[in-house]
Known about the structure:
By secondary structure, the chain is an alpha/beta fold. The protein contains 15 helices and 12 strands. It has a 4-stranded parallel β-sheet, with helices on both faces. Strands 6-5-7-8 form a 4-stranded parallel β-sheet. Strands 10-9-11-12 form a 4-stranded parallel β-sheet, sandwiched between helices. It is globular, with a radius of gyration of 19 Å. 45% of the residues are buried. The model has no long low-confidence stretch (mean pLDDT 97).
Amino acid sequence: MNNSSQKDIENKILKLKKDRNAIILAHNYVLGEIQDIADFCGDSLELSRKAAGIPEETIVFAGVKFMAETAKILCPEKTVLHPVAGAGCPMADMATVEDVRNIKEKYPSAVTVCYVNSNADVKTEADICCTSGNAEKLVASIPEDKDIIFLPDQNLGANIARKLNRKIILWEGYCPTHMRISPEMVKRKQDEFPESETIVHLECKPEVVAIADAALSTAGMLKYAKNSTAKKLIVGTEIGMIHRLQKENPGKIFIPLSEQAVCMDMKMPELKDILNSLEKMETQIILDKETIRKAHLPIKKMLDSKF
Length: 307
Ligand code: 13P
Ligand code: SF4
């Protein structure tokens, strides 16, 4: 797209946003061109908190479906637009509500902790939700004598279990983008840039986390990068993260662990889709009242915890 047509689309978006009393929320992994026009960019926790308190009537959610659904669950009276309806999270689809009911039957007294990267109907079966930004503190707050079922991310669950030295019943889901990052990749980059620090997402395998300087959520990475004295940081997460890290830390160099760490779903919405979404008021997130009521409970519990 040439500069003038990009500017043209941006101007149309800005005008429509006013007409529709809309706000654009974007996840840290979406295309840089969308991050740059969004009203707010963040990790899943920041986006949930933001969605819960906004005055605008319409939310345009640039991210994957579970994020837009979470916004709808938090503000059912608002119109939540998800510009590319097919943009889902493959990990979220690795847990079905039937499977969750089955595992709960097997461990009837366990606390079910559900990562927000899950579909709305799965959340209705959870006791509490978490994000990568608060999972450790939330799990630590559960009494020691309680069994914990953690779903759907086996890596996030295993990383927390290791950190807290606690047994957790893990689901077999994973993020295909983060699962591909191997300890060998990390070591190769660390050898190439010995003066750097390594930050990885908590969805990476425990073997990867073990050799990183920090394992964090995407917001945690931004905070770490800002405060670190290192001039070079190796980044083990979805490639879109580099845009914001670089923009907010122009004096530092960010080295992606893998250029192949691309979440195709996060890359689906383009600027033209945001415009189309506002023009046609599509695609609206629709959830039935009962799903909203039940899924709201574990999300609210998470937000009320203040972790
Ligand atoms: P964050 O909540 O850390 O932004 O992670 C969301 C996600 O989908 C990571 O793959
Ligand atoms: Fe899901 Fe992984 Fe994409 Fe995040 S990066 S939305 S966990 S598939």
